Input
Amino acid sequence: LMADAAADLEAIRFESAMHRFDSVRTATSDDAEAHRQYARLAHYFDRQAAAAEAWERVLELEPEDAAAWDEYFTALRWAGAYETDRRYGEKLMQALTEALRHASGRPELYTNAQDVASDLGQLEAYVATLTAHRETHAGNRVFQHHLGAAQVALAGLEEGDRSRMLEDSIRTVLDELAERNRDVTDIEAPVLYQLAAGYELLSDRAQSAFIGSGGEGDPGPWQKLLADKDFWLARLLAAPDRGILADDMRYWDLVSQLATLQYGPSASESMDEQFRIIDEGLQSPGLGRRAAWISRRLAAVRAVADESVADDPVEGEEPVSMAAEPRNPGLAPQHAEALFEATMEYITWQNGSPVSSLRRLLDYGIRPQRVLEEAVAFEEAMRADRPGYIYAGSLGEARERARQSLITSARGVQARALAQLGQTEAAGRLFQELATESPGSGTLAQYGRHLMRTGQPERGLDMLVEALAHGGSWRRTAEEAAEAAGLPVEVVAERLAVRQPTVQAELEAQALGDRLEREPPDLALPDQHGTQWALRDLSGKVVVLKFWATWCGPCLEEFPHFVQLLEKYEGDDEVVFLTVASAGSSRDGVAQLLATNGYTFPVLLDDEGRAVDFEVLAWPTTFYLDPDGLIQYRREGFEEDGYEHQTAIRIDALRAGGP
Output
């Protein structure tokens, strides 16, 4: 079994390998290598609780395995995050002292521990634990750097200038260390790590301060720190004794470099450099990070393919119908083959839904038979609820909705592939089933396009108007259907004006009827003025409870709209709006944000990690509590379109006692 599992691993049959390693460790509980390999694959498939359990067994058998401690902490961190269960984080905090005995030289151990401590509101306890071991690890530069980083993070949660004083102290130490070693050729890797990681810490904080100033400050200090970080990181990467010390910094450095090129003004002119970065990234340790680079390579190949197709039609050619299948002109053979190979490689790694990638192949008419086979296989995988496809943070009903949505998407790809293969009747039946069983903007529009292709523009128009009423963006296609049916394009707006209010009312009624009926966790926190707020004291009122963070862009974009809501409900004693600054938001950061924007609404300061108890995985997340104190609705993210309306209908539904 171990040999077969190893062969599966080598052949990128990760799911099969995971099951084989699991069989071995079940049969032979003292086989540390089987537990180790299973844990790594369970982590890859985001089965973090199972991975943590396996790492615990590895450490029982081999307690001095520093890498196992590192990966155990990673599994505990993400198990707690994805399952929103603070017990995993508390287990990590309890194991910290023992981990420091065996793995104090591994940077990611501290990163995971500090993130968990921050999420749980236990940064002070984390700093205290490290401080208690300061003398033991006096010569350990990795330890000393992360102790300083933790002290800065803790000070940042407090009011006053202590955080700035600590940063200045670290800067002084780093500058002196840099001055002594800048021209030395044989510096030990831990010294280089302290310099690179230290300047990275300071540059990140300087960048945050610059962004917090609205870009009005001087970017010079931040850019100087960033240059210092890059200089010492390059030295660290060249050090023969660097081991794992540069791995995490280099990974994120490459990610940042690639993003700058991809979203820069000359993205299409930098493809050679993009592929060079991707090739280097593919050497990253860890299956998950290599899988991420496989995905980035597919995105780059896709960009090259898209760029190769001229935007302007050739003179004299008839315009392509919006209902055409495939939708785009064909690619040159070399681009089509590259896109196909990159897509198949991505699918092999089983690290996310392949639906959008398969759709892109169909857009260009690339190998529809193979696309059909892959879409059928993916539908079967989703019906069997196989790992690797659904976001691990989706639990319960949310996970089931995601699974059903992916099944519908896979069937939609199958219908398009059948159409391209000339199996028109089979494609039509499937399009119709999807539009009937899972009506949405996508399924309705695809059926409408099929009806247009098969000479039924009037029926196609009806489907496309329905798709528009469901929030789709298919107006040009609908207008083309109207013209094909011999009708003026104005009929689209006329029919939409009739259908959209009805459809939107039905969708809103459905959303308001899907209530959670959940008891909230206990919440009692002070606001920025020291006033204590507790949910239990708000019985009889509708409560809008919003979790946000100072570093969260969408949260900050939402606040002007949030203020308008506060003004609308001002003086309404039946509705209470509360916001909770969480996820490591410092008191100074909150105070600066409120003062800069003139916000006066209450902000509860989550020093206890209550966002974990509320299962918050995305910011902002808003909960709506009814007068009986039950959580009835939950909304993640911020959408400007219809924001005030969507909030108001939920408040009114709860105030009325029914949807």
